[in-house]
Amino acid sequence: MVDVALTPDERARFLGSLSSDAEFREEVRRRILTEELLSMPDALVRLMGAVGQLSQDVRAGFGSLRREFGSLKTDFESLKTDFESLKTELRSEMKSLETGLRSEMGKLNERLGEMAEDGADAVLVAALKLKGYRVLGEAAPVEMGSGEVDVAIAVEDVSGPKTAVVEAKFRLRASHVRTYSRRLQSDGWKEAMREAGFSPPWLPYIYGSRVYLDALSEAGEAGIGVLAPAGERLPPAAVA
């Protein structure tokens, strides 16, 4: 194809036709632009429509997700409330069980202590008689302001009257012997015994339904006799 340059007058007439003649302008447009460029405005419109639809779908999906999240959050808060309520109920139940268990354990310990005291009465009297003592009264507990003497009994032998005293434990351990030894040495304990009608010298014993070896050793060092269901395990080292 031979390129032909337009004269100024031809160019002016061409531009004037472009401005004034719509059919001429469309014809020129079809000749200059490719098919792809000609169809671009329609494609752009379709693309914008698709983008708009996608945007709507995204907004709708986001709204749905927001609603689902809100529902999940509500369910979580409900579960959290239920869990806190259950935890409170469990704490209350555990506290109630603990209180009940402590009460039952206290009753059991009290009953075991009573059984030990009942056993100590008979064992003490039998042991004293075997040692040649004459029993002057009944074995009985002695109430004190700071507690009690589990068993006390007036006895005598050839040297004169004495008072045998017993602390009773179900399981006798060294710590019980140490506590009992300190009590025997206190002036308050001795004064309370005198006020109850008992007088020295004392025959100190400690009784255990079960006696641990460390308790025997501790009692031997403290000069305290040890009694068990089978009888005297260890005599008092000296009359206090």
Compose a concise summary of this entry.
The chain has about 240 residues and is of the alpha/beta class. It has a domain at about 115-235: Trna Endonuclease, Chain: A, domain 1 (3-Layer(aba) Sandwich). It contains six helices and seven strands, in the order H-H-H-E-E-E-E-H-H-E-H-E-E.
If you had to describe this structure to a student in words, what would you say it looks like?
This protein is of the alpha/beta class. 63% of the residues lie in helices and 20% in strands. It has 6 helices and 7 strands. Strands 1, 2, 3, 4, 5, 6 and 7 form a 7-stranded mixed beta sheet that branches. α1 crosses α2 (22-32) and α4 (174-185) packs parallel to α6.
What layout of secondary structure does this protein have?
Layout: H1 8-20, H2 22-32, H3 35-130, E1 134-135, E2 140-144, E3 147-157, E4 160-172, H4 174-185, H5 187-195, E5 202-211, H6 213-222, E6 225-228, E7 231-234
Parallel strand pairs: 4-5, 5-6
Antiparallel strand pairs: 1-3, 2-3, 3-4, 6-7
Q: Number of DSSP helices? A: 6
Share of residues in strands: 15-25%
According to CATH, what is the topology of the domain at 116-234?
A: Trna Endonuclease, Chain: A, domain 1
**What does the radius of gyration come to?**
54 Å
In which range does the helix fraction lie?
55-70%
Shape estimate:
rod-shaped
Question: What is the rounded distance between the termini?
Answer: 145 Å
Could you spell the SSE succession in H and E letters? HHHEEEEHHEHEE
Structural class category: alpha/beta
* Largest sheet report: 7 strands, mixed
- Counted beta strands: 7
- Determine and state the CATH class of the domain at 116-234: Alpha Beta
Mean pLDDT: 81
